[in-house]
Design a protein that fits this description.
Layout: H1 2-6, H2 14-62, H3 69-75, H4 82-94, E1 99-108, E2 111-117, E3 131-132, H5 142-146, E4 154-158, E5 161-171, E6 177-186, H6 188-236, H7 243-256, H8 263-310, H9 317-335, H10 344-353, H11 366-369, H12 377-400, H13 408-416, H14 437-452, H15 463-472, H16 480-488, H17 490-505
Antiparallel strand pairs: 1-2, 1-6, 2-3, 4-5, 5-6
Helix pairs in contact: 2-6, 7-8, 9-10, 9-14, 9-16, 9-17, 12-13, 13-14, 14-15
């Protein structure tokens, strides 16, 4: 979980994408559903109110004596049965809360002539005989009403508000339409109900969305995000350092045991198989690399022994110098000297390459190589070429072997181990840190071994004298820091020299 929280995705996490996709889908679905539901609710409500208004209008028409309509218009409340009829109409209006206005009109060319107009909650009814002008929305129905026909309920939004009006014709004894009973239902309440309906619908949708979102997040976490991130974590933490660490990492991956029953499980099974195949492949490569490394070391030592066997003066020079370089570099690491360069790989390459630092002597004639006395200037000049010859030999090898960077330090040792800190060495006259670090280390090891070892033309110096000579050359022949590190392990250097001395004497 810590890994999942700390590893931020490049743009959006899978969880956010799922939430966005689900939210968008639910929003579109909710919007469409709300629109359709609202339309159905509105249409249903309007149809119900049309039926109510039509029924009330017909009921009102049934209580009116059509033969007395003209009398009602002219005489009003003084006409016979007018008040009784008005009372009946009021009872009909009050029988349902839906009816806002209930009235009876005689439709003539000049307008609507009031027969009955009951008082409403917010206004008094018109007096009998009053002529009410036609509304604009009413114009298209006038011809039908003048002829005594029937019309469907009308929905208008004029000065009296949003109204639904149903008309029922009132016929006299001869079957002639004398007037129309009309019932108005205010539809403003329907807007309020529609808003309340949408609010309830939105609340239900919001609750459903939250529940679906929680279930989806839990489901996606359990079946998608956590399994994927767990595999990512296992890959990120897979240890390739040793055979044991690889086995532990592989066993941990197998113990994850993802069982989602879908493509994620298929991915996990493939992931486990790939991890197992990779471990087997890496172990096989490492086994082969170890064999190659052992063979490489053996070839180096064999080649170095062949060169050394030609030089009867060197004894175990190649092995001793390798041992000296190792203790010097270990001390430099402890002291933090040149810590950026002294990596584990660098130390390994230098120790393994040390036996080949004099490989160029293969090109020096035996007469010069084993001469018991001092060399002439010409002979010494020829002897010095073993540095460039050695570098060229290693360079040729590097050109023929791909990925042979590990031989870089071998070439540096072979070419520059006779360079001096003050620039007076050979073959290139390099100075200071321009001289490769490996060659500067070998210079100390090489000279110390030459000083303390017995040769056919000289006897080895006592250790104290050899140390005094190296100390004297500190800063001129040798890198001061390397000399200081060498002196810190001089007791170890003496032990190495003594051990090889016993071997040589035996």
């Amino acid at each position: 979980m810590k890994f999942m929280n700390e590893n931020i995705c490049r743009k959006f996490s899978l969880r956010i994408k799922i939430i966005l996709l689900l939210s968008t889908a639910l929003f579109i679905f909710g919007l469409c559903s709300a629109g359709i539901s609202y339309k159905i609710f509105l249409d249903t409500s309007v149809d119900q109110n049309k039926q109510i208004a039509t029924g009330v209008a017909k009921l009102a028409a049934s209580v009116i004596d059509a033969d007395r309509v003209n009398e009602y218009i002219t005489q009003g409340e003084s006409a016979k049965y007018y008040l009784l009829t008005k009372t009946k109409l009021a009872n009909i209006k009050n029988s349902t809360i839906n009816i806002t206005y209930l009235y009876v009109y005689k439709i003539l060319e000049d307008g609507c002539h009031v027969v009955f107009d009951l008082d409403s909650q917010d206004s008094a009814g018109e007096k009998p005989g009053t002529v009410v002008p036609f509304d604009n929305a009413f114009q298209k129905y006038i011809p039908t009403l003048l002829s005594g026909g029937t019309i469907d309920p009308i929905i208008s939004d004029e000065k009296y508000g949003w109204l639904l009006t149903a008309y029922a014709p009132v016929y006299d004894s001869e079957g002639v339409c004398q007037c129309y009973a009309a019932a108005d239902i205010s539809m403003d309440w329907l807007r309020i109900q529609a808003r309340q309906y949408l609010l309830k619908l939105s609340s239900i949708f919001l609750c459903s969305y939250i529940v679906i979102l929680i279930v989806t997040i839990l489901f996606s976490n359990t079946n998608l995000i956590i399994p994927i991130n767990t595999m990512a974590y296992a890959t990120n933490k897979f240890a390739f350092h040793t055979k044991e660490s690889m086995e532990r990492s592989l066993e941990w991956i197998r113990k994850i045991n993802i069982r989602t029953g879908d493509e994620i499980e298929n991915l996990y099974e493939s992931f486990v198989k790939m991890a197992g195949d990779s471990v087997s492949y890496i172990k096989d490569i490492r086994s082969k690399n170890e064999a190659i490394s052992l063979m490489h070391s053996a070839l180096i030592l064999t080649l170095a022994d062949m060169i050394e066997s030609r030089d009867k003066n060197t004894g175990d020079h190649i092995r001793k110098t390798a041992a000296y370089t190792k203790i010097i570099m270990d001390e430099m690491v402890r002291e933090g000297i040149y810590k950026d360069q002294l990596t584990d790989k660098f130390i390994t390459d230098v120790v393994n390459s040390a036996p080949l630092h004099d490989i160029g002597k293969i090109n020096v004639p035996d007469a010069i190589l084993n001469k018991p006395g001092k060399l002439t200037d010409e002979e010494f000049a020829l002897m010095k070429t073993h540095t460039t010859t050695g570098g060229n030999i290693i360079s040729n090898i590097m050109e023929t072997i791909p990925d042979a960077e590990y031989l870089q330090e071998t070439r540096n040792l072979a070419t520059y181990h006779h360079e001096k800190w003050n620039g007076k060495g050979y073959p290139s006259g390099l100075s200071g840190e321009d001289i490769p670090l490996s060659a500067r280390i070998m210079a100390v090891a090489d000279v110390f071994d030459a000083l303390v070892s017995n040769r056919s033309y000289k006897k080895g110096f006592p250790y104290e004298k050899a140390f005094a000579i190296i100390l004297e050359e500190r800063g001129s022949h040798f890198d001061p820091k390397i000399v200081d590190a060498f002196f810190a392990v001089k007791d170890s250097a003496v032990r190495i020299a003594d051990e090889f001395g016993k071997t040589e004497n035996s």
